[in-house]
Amino acid sequence: MRQLLNWTVAVPLLAIVALALTWGRDLGAVLVVVVALLLAGAVLAAVHHAEVVAHRVGEPFGSLVLAVSVTVIEVGLIVTLMVSGGPETASLARDTVFAAVMITTTGIVGLSLLVGARRYGMTLFNAEGSGAALATVATLATMSLVLPTFTTSQPGPEFSPGQLAFAALASLALYVAFVLTQTVRHRDFFLPVGQDCGEDEHAAPPSDRTALTSLGLLVAALVAVVGLAKIESPAIEDAVEAVGFPHSFVGVVIAMLVLLPETLAAVRAARRGRIQTSLNLAYGSAIASIGLTVPTIALASVWLDGPLVLGLGPTQMVLLLLTVVVSVLTVVPGRATRLQGSVHLVLLAAFLFLAINP
């Protein structure tokens, strides 16, 4: 009974109940506020349970669990919206994936570097592992989001069916290769280095039962986060329209909500001097976002009506190119200061500003 009274247990369960009761319904102002509060609570609970699981299985498996969990549910949300939506959802997958890539590689990385550098003066991480992850992100983003703008087999920024099939298989192959490298062959490249202040490293790992309970509650919390974000989307759309922002900005807002658990987990890891864990979360989420979304959308396109727009516009491609160049210069030395964190956050601000004022 005492365990049920724990907020990290109660909130995910309440959020799931709220999701079941409000799914498919038009919400009044009071319910919108209640759902928003449960959404915030589910985010915080997800971070807690992700850290419990991570402490039990160790790095980089802990980061992988959270990144894959969020991405799988995010992919489900994208497919659901595309199936139930109209022509305006043709670019939903592109907008969501690009937003996720920019938020992770500029926002999560920048915030983690800035928090870590403020506490330790200089952040240290493994250049081999972070560089390999960044190279995978750049390759996936270019193949799936840039090439469709320049291919000529299909009019518009779209892949032909054959090109989409190749991009899907290549994305899935790269994702599997990265996971095997991260967890089996070169796991040491993705382990935290230096600066560990040991706040919780010497604590006994949780039992298998506790870890499995947290894993179940983590999945429940993440389902609630994505589902409640979907329920809140009409209110978000109304707010975006009311302030005069482009409709595509709704995807950015939802991506930010979905990525909140990873952001908070990455910042908490940075405060403990575990910058490599933060980078694992950021780059792993970007890789999973593309590597799992593109194959799923390619499969779903068999029964989805209408075009599937994947190619980025000129402004977005410039931002992506600048982000890759800056990220390479940040990762190669294996250490970073507040300046690098600030540069990444300015890139995030540029992405958000241009999403509002394209």
TrEMBL record:
Domain Sodium/calcium exchanger membrane region positions: 29-183, 214-356
Cellular location(s): Membrane
Domain of life: Bacteria
Bilayer topology: Multi-pass membrane protein
Pfam families according to UniProt: Na_Ca_ex (PF01699)
Keyword Coiled coil: no
Zinc-finger recorded as keyword: no
Main location, first listed in the record: membrane
Residues spanning the membrane: 5-23, 29-49, 61-84, 96-117, 129-150, 162-181, 211-229, 249-269, 281-304, 310-332, 339-356
Protein known as: Ionic transporter y4hA
